[in-house]
Amino acid sequence: MKTPFQIRVYRLLLLLFPRSFRNRYGTQMEESFAEMWRERRWGGRTWAESNFSFWAQAVADTLANASSERFPVRLEDNEKRTSLPRTRNLMESWATDIRMAIRSIRRSPGVVTVAVVMLALGIGANVTIFSLTDLVTLRPLPYPQPERQVFVFAAYEASGAIYQPMSTPDLFDMRERSRSLDLAARSDSSFTLTGGDYPERIEGDRVSSNFFSVLGVEVALGRSFLREEEQGSAEVAVITDGLWRRAFGADPDILGQTIMLSSEPHTIIGVLPRGFWYINNLNEVYVPIEAPEGGQGRGDRYQEGVGRLRPGFTIRQANAELEEIAAGLAEEYPETNRGISAGAHPFADRVYPQQFRQGGLIALVAAALVLLIACANVANLMLARISGRGHEIAIRSALGASRRRIVRQLLVEAMGISLLGGALGVILAMYGAMALVSLLPDSFPRVDQIAINGRTLAFALVLTTLTGLLFGILPSLQSARLGIAGTLQQSRRGAAGPTGGRMRRVLVVGEVALALVVVLACALLIQGFFSLQSIDFGYEIDNILTFRLSLPDEKYPDDADVARFWEDLLPRLAAVPGVELTGGSWFLPFMADPVDNYEVPGESYTDSDQRPHASVRMVFPDYFQVMRIPLIQGRPFSSAHRLDQPCALIVNEAFVARHWPGDHPVGNEVIFGGDSCELIGVVGDTVEGSREHRPMAYFSGLQVTTESMYFALRTSGPPTTVVRDVRSAVARLDPDLAIYRVRSMREVVQRALSGLTIVAKVMPVVATLALSLALIGVYALMAYSVTRRTHEVGVRMALGARSRDVLRLVIRQGTSLTIAGILIGLVIAPLLTSSLADFLFEVSPFDWRAFTLVPIALLIAALAATYLPARRATRVDPLVALRSE
Amino acid sequence: MKQQWFHILLALVEQDLHGYGIQRAVLERTDGQIRLWPAMLYRSLSTLDEAGLVEKANTPADEQEDERRQYYSLTSRGRKRLEEEASLMKSWAEEVGTLIPARQRSKT
């Protein structure tokens, strides 16, 4: 049976242990490891993350124990093993090693500078990308014990949909019944803040009274909400530090003051600490949740559950318990809760989009490969340097230095070079992090915290140490392997002998392979990026201004009020100079995607859960024209589709394909929420958030009303030029209203796709580094080999070889190494590129163009790098060459 | 005594176990708190073996097919050492009881 990959990797790790220990326990350890691998838990995390954490723990375990096994300091019987003189001796010899290392580094500043710069580039790239990855995947949230923070969601057993919102009564029941979790509820809200110079729309949340205590956050001023304030009658508010400073000039007497939120007075009872943060940076005010009386509204699911694991409970236990409670609720309230379960999920996973986290990991892997390439280059440099120092080493061994001692001294030297490279790398990373921040949108959670800090420095230090070991260990072992006699003999020819040569070639082949992998991944990502630029969204995104407008319940209590307001507003917006058409939708593409069940008469469903569901949007009549979504059949919404008229429905092609493929669907009946709706038209499919076209159902926003709408205005010029006039048009109709989330449609789309954009911008930098380092490696090896073969070339030329033959000889050697590297790279590459699928849109992760062009380009570049040293070989003067022996 | 040594000895009280079996037993007893990764596990076993607290045991008859599995058992010395450790821990626990009155503890 073939040994599995992970076992082979683990076997390499075990080489860190002394041979005797390995002989005794090696197989058993492998076996244990294999068992753990089989049983490793996914813990609700992605494949990459679980693997990363599994390997990180395995490596840490091996490193820690192997080093203590090799350098035992047994405290229990220290009098027996460690005696004072030995310690002093140890210290002294280390000091000597360090002194010698410094001396030797100073002796060859040129080589060392090249090595340091190469390492700095590799380490700098890694630290830069780590500063982002750390924030996105590893760094705890700004709450005490962030790993115990979870978010709680509903799960629909029939459709398999998870991470769904919950209803207030369900959450409150769970809060009472759960032993493993402290549970709070929150839901998005926004308010018009009046009383200042102009009305302003501010974002806020409605939260349960224990929301802040569940997060582990205490108010800086005043108090938090009380349980009895959850009934909705208490008009109190907690504001953020930002709003306090911005709107109230940090007034110390703020508590007890009244502010007008959507025309209702609220008493300020607390101010949150500076830097309080939840999900996004936009929220400025918190008001209590309105708990429905007597458990009403169990079917209205719009709350997000926020939980904190109580001491001693794990997320698994919490999940099991939530499932149990949900099952109990389903029995008690079958009409609203049947088939609906609940679960908890690590909070950090929710804060950053999956794409960012995956992108971060991919970039980190690519950067790690760059560092490996740099290490291979430096190892080659070191080999060359050591072979030049064969004499010195031989003399030291002749004078009684043990092999171990020589290896150690060379390692200390390597460590010194690595530390210099690390220091320079950290400096580079500071600039890198600044550049990275400039690529991220302002709304990116905690973007301000991407910087070189303690954690990134610690990472840099670990990386530097590993790097030093990695490039130091091969050359040192190599030098130690040669006996005194061998070294003295070989040093005369200034070469490290056949083994050294083979090792150098292997290193270069490895470099080329890794560079190919990185460049390939980059080429694919760039291809994906361009294919995204030209992707057919099904709508046009240029020259559209979008913003949101919400009507307060208090002032617009009925559907009729809301519909009347929209009807009044739409022509006024259309009259604004520069606005061509006025449309709007409940949610625009790449925003929320609410779905609903429906029934098609004639189709039978075994259970109410089995009903199909579709994305639902209320749109203003001209929405399709504004977005240039084609009407394929039937007619658009008109002013005839109003509140009191029979329900009209427009669906997209995907919807038609699901129920009436190849048929004329217009005129059919579809039942939504018990109401029968006539299908009056079919529009083209659109990209709403994912690549696949999902079935969509559109209603007229004047018939099925909602108090919050996103507007989309098609403008004749740049969208932002009309913002002022739009604002005043709204204010003329209702001076207490304010438009918010004002953006161009292009901005909306770009923001949604920024994960890919960032990866597409970062990867070329990483790939360029990888490519240049690998080419330097090829060049250096060939240059070195030409120098070493000067004598041989001289003999050949003296015997009549022409310079063309010599050129061919050298180039053939370089090419064969490059081709070997490319072939190996092509085998490894699919392992990495297959994880890119999410970023590539229409491009296959094994796109044949990238997989042919990149290797060819790499081969040509490597040929160029070989050509220069080869040319030099042809200029060898036979007389000089022969004399050089 | 190091925590992981204590737990390994404790895992071997009832029955002889192989490496991964010890790892499972400790994981279960500590509710997932202590996961002995292979290097930690076998270095501890090596130390305990040298100290004469555990020894290699014969593979039980029903497990013969997998000859890679080495079973370990507690020596009488190991059992004694474990008992000493336990009574020491017990005395510490009692000390907590006398230092912090019950009334005060129940509050936290």
Write the layout of secondary structure elements.
The complex is a heterodimer of chains A (885) and B (108).
Chain A: H1 5-14, H2 19-39, H3 47-70, H4 78-81, H5 84-107, H6 109-138, E1 149-156, E2 166-167, H7 168-177, E3 181-194, E4 200-207, H8 211-215, E5 221-222, E6 236-239, H9 241-248, E7 258-261, E8 264-271, E9 285-288, E10 301-309, H10 315-332, H11 334-337, E11 340-346, H12 348-351, H13 354-388, H14 390-398, H15 403-439, H16 454-481, H17 484-491, H18 497-533, E12 544-550, H19 559-574, E13 579-585, E14 595-599, E15 613-619, H20 623-627, E16 631-634, E17 648-652, H21 653-659, E18 669-672, E19 675-683, E20 696-700, E21 708-715, H22 723-733, E22 740-744, H23 745-752, H24 754-788, H25 790-798, H26 803-833, H27 848-874, H28 878-883
Parallel strand pairs in A: 4-9, 6-8, 15-20, 17-19
Antiparallel strand pairs in A: 1-10, 1-11, 2-10, 3-4, 3-7, 3-10, 5-8, 6-9, 7-8, 12-21, 12-22, 13-21, 14-15, 14-18, 16-19, 17-20, 18-19
Chain B: H1 3-11, E1 17-18, H2 19-29, H3 38-50, E2 54-57, E3 71-74, H4 76-99, H5 102-107
Antiparallel strand pairs in B: 1-3, 2-3
How would you describe what is shown here?
The complex is a heterodimer of chains A (885) and B (108). Chain A is an alpha+beta fold and 885 residues long. In chain A, the strands form three sheets. Chain A has a six-stranded mixed beta barrel. In chain A, a hairpin with a 2-residue loop joins strand 7 and strand 8. Chain A is elongated and about 105 Å long. Chain B is mainly alpha-helical. Chain B has a single domain (3-107), classed as Winged helix-like DNA-binding domain superfamily/Winged helix DNA-binding domain (Arc Repressor Mutant, subunit A, Orthogonal Bundle). Chain B has helices spanning 3-11, 19-29, 38-50, 76-99, 102-107; strands spanning 17-18, 54-57, 71-74. Chain B has a three-stranded antiparallel beta sheet. The mean pLDDT of chain B is 85. The A-B interface holds A 17, 21, 24-25, 27-33, 35-36, 57-58, 61-62, 64-66, 68-69, 74, 314 and B 18-20, 23, 31-32, 35, 37-43, 45-47, 68-70.
